[in-house]
Every structure is written in C-alpha cells, then in structure tokens.
From TrEMBL, chains A, B, C, D:
Pyruvate binds at residues 55, 218. The active site is at residues 143, 171. The lineage of its organism: Bacteria, Bacillati, Actinomycetota, Actinomycetes, Kitasatosporales. Pfam families: DHDPS. PANTHER family: 4-HYDROXY-2-OXOGLUTARATE ALDOLASE, MITOCHONDRIAL, DIHYDRODIPICOLINATE SYNTHASE. SUPFAM superfamilies: Aldolase. InterPro entries: Aldolase_TIM, DapA-like, Schiff_base-form_aldolases_AS, Schiff_base-form_aldolases_CS. Belongs to the DapA family. The keyword Lyase applies. GO terms for biological process: small molecule metabolic process. Keywords: Lyase, Schiff base. This is Dihydrodipicolinate synthase family protein. One of its GO terms (molecular function) is 4-hydroxy-tetrahydrodipicolinate synthase activity. It comes from Streptomyces armeniacus.
Length: 316, 316, 316, 316
C-alpha cells in the first residue's frame, strides 16, 4: 500500500492531468510506461493526478486493468501529489464497488459521474452521490460530463452537495463555461467556495475558467504538454492574464492533433486518445501508442501529422 | 450448474420477457421471489427468459447481484426455456468479463449493447461484437437501445454481423419500427432470416412488428401479464390479426401504469419499473416492490393507481 | 378560386400523399409538372392531397412559391379530393399569416407544427394551436415531426385539442408507433375517435399503423408509387393483413432510393427528395428533378440507382 | 429612409445588444417604447444594435412586425450606431426575402442562421450563406445558435466564408467557448482576423471570450444593464482583467432573473424574455412587459423577484 497524500488539499488547486493509460500492443496495462508518464507529470510540477478518467480510457478497461492502473499511479506518485481515481460505472451499487477497489488500490480521492445508461432524476442523482460518499471514506468529486453521461448536473444538485460536504469538488467537462460561472458565483454567495474545488476539464478555456474563479484544470492535453499548462496556470495565478491567454492559444493550436484521425473509420475519442498516446510515444514517454479495443488505431499519416504538430509547438 | 437448454432455438421465436429483478427492502436480490416470477412466466408459456436486461435494472445491480440473478433464473428455468442474459457494460473488455460471468452462471445466450459512455464508430461497434462473440462461446444477441446507449445500431452493422453468424439475433428497443421493417426486408433479401432472430422490445407495437416479420417480443410489461402477450403472439402467429390488435390495445391501456409516478421527484425508469414491481406484488408473485438505489419509490397513491389499472385489465 | 371540397371528411381516411413541389432548373415552381403530379395521384385514387409539407420542401420555398403551389394544387384537384396545406412557420403570428394565405389560395384544411426555433412549453403549444384555429376557419391538423421541430407533441396536448374540436386530426411523423398506439387507445376511451383523424407519416409501418387503428397515411414515397399505397390501404381496410404486409414490404424495399445520395456532400433530406423527384422524372410525371437551394443535387450514378430501383419495383 | 451608418466597421467591435422588441398588451410593436430602448442603449455607449434576433422574439413576430421593428430602430439610431438585423427563416429563399425587407427597412448589416427545420449538410450550409450574401448587398454575419437551429456551424464552414469575404463576422451563441477559441486561433493563423468580427452571444463568459480574442459581445442581458457590459468591455479592452471578471460576476448574478418563471407552465425562453422586459418596465424604459404569443406571462411573484434582483444589482 503506497503512502497516502498527507492531507488532501481543500480546495484542490492547480493542474491535475487525467492520465492516459499506456497499453501494450496486446492490450494490457504497460505499468513501466505508466510510471514514466507519472514521472513526466510530476517533474513538470502538476498538483495532482487523475487516474482512469475518460482520457484514461476508463470505459474500455476491465476492473482488473483499472485496479492495476490506480495502484501503479499511486505507487509511482508516492505521496508527491494526490491521486484522484475515476469510479466510472452505471449506477450506485456498481460505483460503490469501483470506489472500494480504488480505495484499496491507493486512491486519495474519487471522481464519480451521475448514473448513466438508466437516466436518473436530479433528486435520485443527489441521493446517488450521498450514498457513494457514505460508502467509502474518501473525498468525492462529481464529474459533470454530458457527452458521456447524457445529462448535465444541475447547479442546484452540485450546490446542495457542496454545502453539506458530500462533495469535495467538481470536475466540469460540460464545456458550458457560462453555467460554470453561475455555479461559482452561487458557491461564493453561499460561502462554500473556500473548501470546494471547481476544476474545469475544458482544456481550451482554462484562462477564462481561472479568470472566472475556477481552482484548477484537468486537461487531457496536459498528458502531452504539462509544462504548458503549468505556465498557463502560473500566469493566471499571478494575474498575468495576457500571458495566460497566449499560452492557452498555443495549447489550443496543439490541441488540433485530436483530429489526426478525421476521415478514418474511427470515433472522435479514438482519434483524440490515439493522438495523445502517439505524441507521448514520439516524446519518448511511453512505449506504444496502442488504445484499448474496440477503438481503431491511427494510421501512419495521422501519426506523421501529430509529429508535425509537436514540432510546431516546440516540443520535438 | 443448471442443465443447458438442449439446443438454443435458431431463430428464437415467441415471447421472451425481460425479467424484473425482485429485491428485498434492503436491496438484495430476493431469490425466492425471482423463482416465483420465473414460474409465473413459464406457466404462462413463454418461449424464453431474459435476465438482467434494462427492465431487470442491470444498470443498478452490482456484479455479484447480476450473477446471483442469472444463476437463480437458470436454475429455476431448469432447461424448460432458454435463458438469455444481459451483459451490459461500457465496452469490450468489460462486456467480456460480464459474458464470462454470465456463462458461468448458466446463461444460454448473451445480449450485449454497443459501447456506451465512450461513443464508437460503426466500424468499431462491429469489431466490438465480433470480439465479444469470439471471447465467449454462446449465441450473442445485439441489443439496440438508443435511449440508454445514445447511438442506434446501423442496419449495415447488424446485417454484416447476421450474415457471418456473429450474431444470433437482435433485440430492438429503438422504438423505430420503420427501421426494423427495412432491416427485416434486407435480411430476407440476403437470405439470413431463417436463422437470425429479430425480437422487438417495444411492447405496444408487437402486432405490427410481427406483421412485419419479427420473430418475437421482449416485453417489459410481460412481467405483469405474460398471458396477454402469449395470446397476442398466438393470434398473430395464426393470422388472426384483428384479435392480435385487440389484445395489443388492451395491453397498451395497461401499459399506462408506467406513469404511476408522474409528477413525483423520480425518473421515468423508476416510475415504470416501480409500477411493474408494484403490480407483481399486488398479484402475489413477488414479496417487495423495492427498486434498486438510487431510484425513488412510488408512493401509496401511485400504487393505488396501479391496483386500479390491474382491476380494469381483469388481472385482479 | 377553385371549388372547395363539398364537405371536409371527418375523420379524413385513406392515402393523402404529401406532394413533392416540382421546380424548374431555375428554381421556380413548375406548375405544369405540379398539375401532372396531382393527376398522377388522383388517377391512382388517393383520398386527399397535402401541399407544401416537409416533402414539398416547404422550408425551402418562399411565401410566393408556397402560394403558387397551393393554388395550383387546389385548382388541379378541382374538388375531386380535399387539399390540405402546410402552414410551416416558427410561431403563432407567422403561422397565422401562412394560414390566411393558404386559405386564400384554396386550401380545404391546414397542417401546422408546434412552434420551433424558440421552443415552447406544452401549455404554450396548446395555446398556439387554439390561436391558429381561432384565426382561420378551416379544419386544422397538428403535425408532429420531432426531426424538424425538435419537440414531440405530448399525448395530453393532442388529446385536449381533439376533445374540444380545435384539431380535426393529427399527422404523426414522429416514427414512434408505440406512442401513437397509446394515443389511439386514449382517443377511443374518450370517445373522440369518430371525428378525429389520425394519419401516420411513417411510410414503412402503414400496415401496423392501420392495424392499430390509424385512419390513413401521408406517405412521401406515395409521390412515386401511389398505387402501391392504395393497394396497401385497401388490403388493410378489408382485413387482408398479410397482403397489406407484403405490399408494405415491397414499398419498404423501394424506399431504399432515399439513400441514393449516401456518401455525397448532401443532406439526408436532399438525397430523399432528390430521389423522389428523380423517380417522378424517370416515370415521366414531372419535367426536372431539381430541388430547392441550398440542397445539393443527386449525380448521375445516384439517378441510375433510382432507375434500377424503379425497375426492380416493377414501375419502369 | 434613415441615414446609413457612414461605413460599417470592419471588424465590428464592442457591445451590440440584441434588442428586446417591446409590445403593447394587444401584441403590436410598441414603437415608442422601442425608441426609448434604443436611446437607453445609445446613451450607455453601445457600439451597435441588433434588431429582431432571438432576444427580439424574431420567431414570434410576423413579417410586418419585423419590418416595423427594424425601421423603428434604424430611424431611432439615426446613424449613431450601426444596426444589424436578424433575418431568421428556415432556408435560403425565405432568408433572402427577409434580407431584402431588412435592407429596405434600413438595416446596415444582416444576421442569418444556417437553415433549420430541414437540416442541411455543411456544404449546403456554406452555399446558403453565399447565396444570401450574393442576393443582398449588405455585410452578413453568421449566427451560430444550436439551441434554436439544432446544428452547430462547423469551424471549416466559418473559416471558408470568412476567408473569401462572404461573411463580415460571426455571432456565436453556441455556448462553446472552446470551439470559439479554436476558431479564433485558426482565423489568426489564416490572417483573416483583422476584418472578420467575432462576437459572443454568451453573456456570462464575456471576459473569457474577450481574453480569447473575441471582438465583442451581443448580450441579451445588455437590454437591462448596458452600462455594466460597457464597463466590462472597457476593462477588458484596457487589460484590467480582474475588474472585467468582477463586473462579469455581478452581471452573472443579475442574470438569475431569467429563472423568474421557473416552476410555472412556461418555456425557458418566455421566462427569460419576460424577465428582461419586466426589468425594462421596472426601470421605466418600456411601457409593457408583454411578450408575443404563445409565450406565457410572468406572474406577480415572478415580477417581484425581478424587482429584488434589480435592487441587489444597484439598478433600482
């Protein structure tokens, strides 16, 4: 069992990359590459690590692979940064099983979505988070990701769960910065902003989200360029907003690699995750760019376009 | 290990209810009630049993609860009807784990959806089904349920997987009978309709679906009134279409119980499943109408409305 | 002013094709071809004509073109069949203007959707239909077409407007035959089915819809093969359901022409409407297959595929 | 005919409120109130006026009401600020008719959406904008509003139409600031940012949008508090980002008035527009808070909540 982060920060602030899960060509978790990726992030100075989130291909990994991933990340982090673990499953009983396994594997905090597959009413969603928090004694983040879950967390739900301490924070991957603004204004009016952490998962509007009062960012692209997100965060933290925006612009251009697979018979997700992993391979961080089945692989032309983008961004 | 159905019918025809999963008030699988429900169905003459589908609250059950449910159904069926088991999970590796567990628990066939949470391209979806079929040697049905999965299976995907024998059949819960018509016409043109089973999951258009050439039906409402669906199926099978439509009309009126919870702070699913279970309780088939967390429960007024509907339908 | 249909039938029954609007290559209404199309339909024995609906490219026609179309159809019909006119616009004031123009141009009945662009609450939608009916004294049909309007008419809304005589009928293009079944059962329970006309716009499930009690069909494909839909309707009307289903299967295969443009840089609508018009051109009914801007045109290969389909269907 | 704005600014920058359309209780355009609203805006220093957009209830106004509105605004502006006019209609021919009428009524520029009701392919959408621009010789803005139109303008489409001068700008009401960021980065890379105006329609993320390089904002809430948006814009323009964010926070709280009608039988739109108009009434700018049929009206309690919000915001 790895040593836990001494105390989980409240609120959690900064750059918390949602780690890719490196795989072998045969589809198993490549723990050596995963350790290297953790080191790549910690050296850059990230403030936390998010394992088996959507970027970590949680939906495509077996329970055993998820456990291996969380344990490997927790051991590699060794208490140098808190480890958040996704507990992605369809509803309460299943999320609780994921949560227990993640706690056993060394997670410092949990990240859960609303139920999906079977849609719930906001009152049921609220009950869901309370039950998950009551079942496993770790800080719990709500993960608002309508593109995957097909409902958006209501501001009222998040507000109630923040006010009574059920939730330690929110990872907002809704892309709806206007709604996030209203939530932040509401949390401040309620006086719960000092302990509740609001993290944006939208990697192209981090400057705006921080300007609006968000505490940090969970950027998929941060796998590839953690230093860029650290510079962006530091510029924002110290009020150098123009610099923050310039760094964000640079990262927005690099983000174009997610379309490497456009036109091929593959999903947007397979293209984006394939591009992140191809980049990590080209940067020498991980061994293989393999993504989990049934996602299609990027072809050579696509990988070449990733290489060119890395060069333009000054990373290669 | 229960005895397997001697030979899985190809194509599977008839009424195959998606069983509710009776629970104790504490939320555990009530195996005694589940056995009684199986008997309730077999006595009525159903042609198969579908365990841990959406109506079985698969999304809300833990892996252990799913296994208990499948094993109980398989044992209670004792080879008198084939047992199909849902293997509902987000993607290939996870579905394969579900499939192995279902096979171990005694399932005669498996029912899998396309990947969800992370959306796949049709080519990736096709690969997904091939991998699931290759991994566990049981007949495999595709489960087309856009309301839960948020994509619709393409006719081309189903056609390809039917033609090469990957799939033994389709459970169509899309509600799109026009698309089903085109699929059936296409399957006949390809000559694959003699072994491939097309079952509709839309309990209000069974007469039309059978008239269009579907082989059977997987009706959630069949939990409550299996005899009604058997009469409907038999009328259709023997060309008495007006009688079939009249029976369908009667069942369509009874189906109104799914709105027992309208206006309450609960999901449509919780209302519908709560009503099915309340009806099974009122009919003396199961002990408790409890649904799985975090679904809200029907109140007394709602249950009273279910009782009235059962009386109007001649079931009480 | 053309002579009106002596008395508008209540309920309207039978086959009511939504007429294509033939255009010249320059994009103007080709009134000569339109008259020929009306004759093509009346000779086949249709029970009504629906001008400037979605199949008539209402969304792409100017007000002047809509008026020309309705007037031409009404004159060509000459009282031999009632003429329904679409009054497609975003909200009440605009629909009322369309309704007045349609009445002036000779329409016998009007077909209106719920407001779109700005979404309305069901109570507002109900008010909308009441205002339209009060403003222009013609029978009013509600047009339920979620693919265009992005809301579905609630059964409660339709029921209330049927019960008090605001609506003369419903054109259901939702594709949701299960919901239509429940509506029909409800209307019969309320005793309003004897005057209220329920027409399905789903051309592939006409047999099932008629079996469920629908009064008729508004089939886009009926432009091309009205005789097929008449045979289907007559078979159903006289209880020969197997024959009805066989005719429906034949039409379902012919319906494949809507995919003539698949793969090209054009919308599904442009492909489907282009195919209907190409077929009407190949059959010698209309002059030009032109569709309205900005819809792309089918290429030669696509038109050749339409020709082959017509041959297979025995129409060429 | 009013005097035109001497030269339409390229790019248009600043605060361009989408004007509410004041109505009499009988539902006619209240031109006196409309003139007062224009004055209210010009006194505050706005950089342009947008008439008959979504906030102007374009979808609910007849053609005659739209013309009256545009003419009144153009006359009241008297060349002191450019007047953009919405030309909201379902497709090309109809938008062209709207565009000619708007030009006749004195508009300085036009704002058009992609076709709706009948969905178009991106290539057809591009053709649509080219035809509209070719048909009426006024600067043309694309209006990206997926909540109304149900498609999102592709970055490729906007980029192509910006590069060749078809479009003078974009009003982005998609709420997707990440996509806007990528568009802005792309426009700069193409060198077309110096003449093409990017305006955000998201009133709660103006600080972030301006930080990302947007040229201005079209805020519905600006009807009520134009001075607030002017302060926000000026703070951002001069690099005082923390002040900009504070002003944005204040406006985000005021924006809560859009939920005045929550729980009532009315649409979100009717609640929001009713609240803006109630506020303008309470501020003494317009006579009546009436919204166009079939939108439901706010009740007294709702109006009282608007009054309280205005007081908290220091406007009353």
């Amino acid at each position: 069992m790895p040593p836990p982060a001494a105390r989980f920060p409240a609120p959690l602030r900064g750059v918390v990359p949602p780690l890719c899960t490196p795989l072998t060509p045969a589809g198993e978790v490549d723990t050596r590459s995963l350790r290297a990726l953790v080191e790549h992030q910690l050296v850059a100075g990230v403030h936390g690590l998010f394992a088996v989130g959507s970027t970590g291909e949680a939906a495509h990994l077996s329970d055993a692979q998820r456990r291996t991933t969380i344990r490997t990340v927790a051991e590699a982090a060794g208490g140098r940064a808190p480890v958040l673990a996704g507990v992605i499953d369809t509803s309460t009983a299943r999320v609780l099983d994921q949560a227990r396994a993640a706690a056993d594997a060394g997670a410092d905090a949990l990240v859960a979505t609303a139920p999906f597959y079977a849609t719930t009413h906001p009152a049921e969603t609220e009950d869901h988070f309370r039950r998950v928090r009551a079942g496993v004694d770790l800080p719990l983040f709500a993960y608002d990701i309508p593109s995957a879950v097909h409902t958006k967390l209501a501001a009222r739900t998040v507000g109630a769960l923040a006010a009574d301490g059920t939730l330690a924070g929110l990872k907002d991957s809704s892309g709806d910065l206007g709604a996030l603004r209203r939530l932040l204004v509401g949390l401040r009016a309620e006086g719960v902003d000092s302990s509740f952490s609001v993290l944006t998962g939208s990697e192209l509007t981090v400057d705006g989200a921080l300007l609006a009062g968000a505490h940090g960012v969970v950027p998929g692209l941060g796998n590839v360029d953690p230093a860029g997100y650290l510079r962006l965060y530091e510029a924002a933290r110290t009020g150098r907003w123009t610099e923050a925006a310039e760094e964000q612009d640079r990262l927005a251009e690099l983000f174009g690699i997610i379309e490497a697979g456009a036109g091929a018979e593959m999903s947007h997700g397979a293209s984006a995750l394939g591009a992140f992993k191809a980049a990590l391979g080209l940067l020498g961080v991980i061994e293989s760019p393999a993504t989990a089945a049934p996602q299609a692989a990027l072809d050579g032309t696509a990988v070449a376009s990733v290489r060119e983008a890395l060069k333009r961004a000054g990373l290669l």
